[in-house]
Amino acid sequence: MPELPDISAYLSALEPRILGQPLTHLRIASPFLLRTARPSIEEIENHTVTALHRIGKRIAFEFDNGLWLVLHLMIAGRLHWRPLEAKLGGRNNLAAFDFPTGSLVLTEAGSKRRASFTSSPTKPSLRKSTPAESTSSPPTSTASAPPLPQKTAP
Questions:
Q1: What is the Cβ-side half-sphere exposure of residue 141, based on CA atoms within 13 angstroms?
Q2: 151 within some domain
Q3: Spatial CB neighbours of 121, under 8 Å, sequence gap ≥ 6
Q4: Residue 138 burial by CB count (10 A; 0-12/13-18/19+): exposed, middle or buried?
Q5: Which range of residues forms the domain containing residue 34?
Q6: pLDDT at residue 46 in the model
Q7: What DSSP string runs through 63-127?
Q8: CB of 135 within 8 A of CB of 54?
Q9: CA nearest 60: which of 7, 132, 5, 115?
Q10: Mean pLDDT within 48-57
Q11: Who has greater pLDDT, 21 or 87?
Q12: In a 3-state reduction of DSSP, which class is residue 6?
């Protein structure tokens, strides 16, 4: 299971890539991944990510329209930064979050498919995040962000 340092590393790597960027499209390979019906994914698409938060062991995306997308990687879920509109082929690729600069692909190596995400009209209230756990402004430098694994197009 990704532990808190892993979640923090993901947030540090995601900030320079997606903070202040619009989520142009969200592609889901498995309907079981999305655990909520309202608000719909269409209500999140084409809106800008204004902040990233760690809520426990979840990664929360806050959008400019006030909606939230909360991602739980569970045991075998991983995030990969790939070229724009990366294909979702293969059984391990569960979803792709397309941004103008690339695609964030959610994969899960296990067969149980426990990773999930939810959309929410209000801030998730699992616990309050501290300033060290959230970012609400774009970073000034990308030099300190650890790289996400990048896969080149075949």
A1: 2
A2: no
A3: 38, 39, 66, 67, 68
A4: middle
A5: 4-123
A6: 96
A7: ETTS-EEEEE-TTTEEEEEESTT----SSSEEEEEEETTEEEEEEE-SSS---EEEEESS---SS
A8: no
A9: 7
A10: 92
A11: 21
A12: helix
Number of domains in the chain: 1
Q: What percent of the chain has pLDDT over 70?
A: 69
Place of tokens 């792709």: 96
Rg (CA), the chain: 14
Strand partners of residue 120: 68
**Structure tokens belonging to residue 21:** 């960027």
pLDDT at 73 (0 to 100) = 81
Q: Which amino acid is at 10?
A: Y
Establish if 34 belongs to a structural domain: yes
With residue 23 as reference, give the H or E element that holds it. Answer: strand 22-23
Residue 89 counted as domain residue: yes
Model confidence pTM above 0.85: no
Is residue 1's pLDDT more than 50?
no
In a domain, 132, yes or no: no
* Angstrom distance (rounded) from CA 125 to CA 128: 7
CATH number for the domain spanning 35: value is 3.20.190.10
